Amino acid sequence: MGTPRKTIPEKSAPAMFDQVFEDIRNDEQNAAYTAAGIDPLYSASASARIVIIGQAPGRVAQDTRVPWNDRSGDRLREWLGMDRDTFYDPSKVAIIPMDFYFPGTGKSGDLPPRKGFAEKWHPILLQMMPQVELTVLVGSYAVHHYLGLKSSISLTSVVQDYRSYLPARFPLVHPSPRNQIWMRNNPWFAEEVLPDLRATVARILRHAS
What we know:
The chain has a single domain, classed as Uracil-DNA Glycosylase, subunit E, CATH 3.40.470. It has ten helices and six strands.
């Protein structure tokens, strides 16, 4: 017999998630954002079956209060085979970036997620989601952190070896339009990886219905 899943009493789960949200808002590390009226941007619930972990909200996502609300999000949903309603349904899909706030812009684009943020808040949220079957790791920051890999290991090699991390985790490159050249140079991604990703996601969501 397998180990029975832990359960969270239905009535207590929303209150627990609300408390974590307030704890994040009130953390000194996020004081400048809270003072500016900016709340942490993520989505989670006790019944989520899939977790999507990216890098950090972009400026558009933070301004609109909708994660992955850009062309990268459109492409990610296409890769996953998800429509917007499913993607933004926290009862099925949790969206937990490596940082819950837009970190600002540098010379070559958005700044990286703040160090230590994911280590502090992800374990708290993830332990409150006992039904998760798949964690989709999007981009180098999430992939290297969650797979415990040295930064010198190329993201391309990790994604190409994605089967080694199944069934619990699925590493992906970032779906930014800037990765068009990478897509053209690595046709195996669309030919092999994406069909497996869509099939895995569809199976999990079918069982969740």
